[in-house]
Specification:
Distance between the termini: 18 Å
Number of domains: 1
Strand order of the largest sheet: 3-6-5-4
Shape: globular
Number of strands: 6
Helix content: 25-40%
Largest sheet: 4 strands, parallel
Strand content: 15-25%
């Protein structure tokens, strides 16, 4: 069953056509890679998907500075879970579970801006994975991430796919997605 569909749709930015006559159907549970050189319209297309499917999409940005609103991973996850109306008496336990899964428990009270790029992207994916969204969109998520964290994040993306989530990644390096997308 298609969760995203575009039929002969032009994608515009400020009344300028960036992508012409887009035809695309993405089924639930697929792992899709949008690849191309810088400036080819990947992020523009991601923005269009998010605009049209915002009720069902969780997004991880290329630049983590755009991702976070709170000072620490703890506060980020409290904010997320409160907005999801998670039972307040279980929030602390759930936060520790999430942070442990994403190898951030020891960073719980550290300022987000002091985390490495890989740690910030792990936190961003942790939030996206726990939004209860069936669609997870990653926009060049490995731009400031080392190989160890890339491997970790790819494994988590595989886990999300196995859990039935639809994954869309925009990246100019298709080689790291061989056998996955």
């Amino acid at each position: 069953m298609a969760v995203i569909e575009f039929h002969n749709q032009d994608i515009n930015v400020e009344k300028k056509i960036i992508l012409k006559k887009v035809n695309l159907s993405i089924d639930a549970g697929e792992f899709i890679l949008l690849s191309g050189v810088s400036g080819s319209g990947k992020t523009t297309f991601i923005n269009k998907i998010v605009d049209e499917y915002q009720q069902t999409a969780a997004r991880v940005f290329q630049n983590p500075d755009q991702q976070f609103t709170m000072e620490t991973p703890l506060l980020e996850l409290v904010f997320l879970l409160e907005n999801l109306r998670f039972p307040s008496q279980k929030i602390g336990q759930k936060i520790d579970e999430i942070l442990r899964e994403f190898h951030l428990l020891d960073k719980k009270n550290q300022f987000v801006y002091t985390l490495s790029g890989g740690e910030q992207q792990r936190l961003a994916l942790a939030e996206a994975a726990n939004l209860k969204s069936d669609l997870v969109i990653l926009d060049e998520p490995f731009a400031s991430v080392d190989r160890k964290n890339i491997a970790f994040l790819l494994d988590k993306a595989k886990d999300l796919k196995k859990a039935g989530k639809t994954i869309i990644v925009a990246d100019h390096n298709p080689l790291i997605y061989q056998g996955l997308a």
